[in-house]
Amino acid sequence: MRVGVGGAAACFLFTLSGWPPARAKYDSGTVETDEKWVFLTKFCFLATKGQINYHIRYPQEKYNVNLLFYHDEKSQWPSVYKNRSKDCWSKEAVAAIEKNQLFNLTQSFPLSGCQVMEENGINYTDCQRGLGFKSARERWWFLAVSNCMGGGIRLDYKITMTNGKTLWRRHFSANQIGIFEVNMLSIILFIILFGISIYFARK
Ligand SMILES: *[C@@H]1O[C@H](CO)[C@@H](O)[C@H](O)[C@H]1NC(C)=O
Ligand SMILES: *[C@@H]1O[C@H](CO)[C@@H](O)[C@H](O)[C@H]1NC(C)=O
Ligand SMILES: *[C@@H]1O[C@H](CO)[C@@H](O)[C@H](O)[C@H]1NC(C)=O
């Protein structure tokens, strides 16, 4: 696996400009809000293959929820995050403008992998899907959920994000792989220098 310096730098730059590096590659939680649009999680994907698996479940009531994917280009995430001049609909439109970045979490939208399940007398929309990510460079992806119709968002989610298939690297964000390799290099350099200094100390 090649870790491009340019791509890693892009991930670092994003980190410096306000988003801390993603640590947890497994994210789960409950959203319970009156907001119409909520940020869920983010991940830095390598230029090679990355994968997201999501499992999202919410009570099937009057409203439906959409899952939105944004990447780190200026016209995408930076244009919607904390942008007060964009309402929920225009934030959805930014994701929808590119192919396969807006998933209606309903049974009638086959791509999203949703089923209706009854449990304790309540019908839930239960969505599970794995998505492969491939792009020309390393980039951040940001996930949000929305319900622009109003009535709030209540859901449970489990999201796993991985880079490639090598076991010891699987759960690192691309930017952390960079850090890991820099650390290994400093340890090796340290051992070499330590060896040399012992050698001269004994002379
Ligand atoms: C915020 O949204 C407005 C309206 O869509 C847009 O003109 C502006 O460029 C956005 N701000 C940023 C920082 O992208
Ligand atoms: C999916 O959601 C968008 C935005 O809310 C909406 O415009 C569209 O009609 C929905 N599509 C389906 C198939 O439900
Ligand atoms: C759940 O959905 C099924 C099939 O759509 C329906 O027959 C049933 O009445 C629903 N149950 C509740 C509690 O809404």
Automatic annotation (TrEMBL):
InterPro entries noted in UniProt: GPR180-like_N, GPR180/TMEM145
Transmembrane segments: 178-201
Signal peptide boundaries: 1-24
GPR180-like N-terminal domain: residues covered: 28-149
One Pfam family this sequence matches: TMEM145_N
Protein name: GPR180-like N-terminal domain-containing protein
Superkingdom as given in the UniProt entry: Eukaryota
Keywords associated with the record: Membrane, Signal, Transmembrane, Transmembrane helix
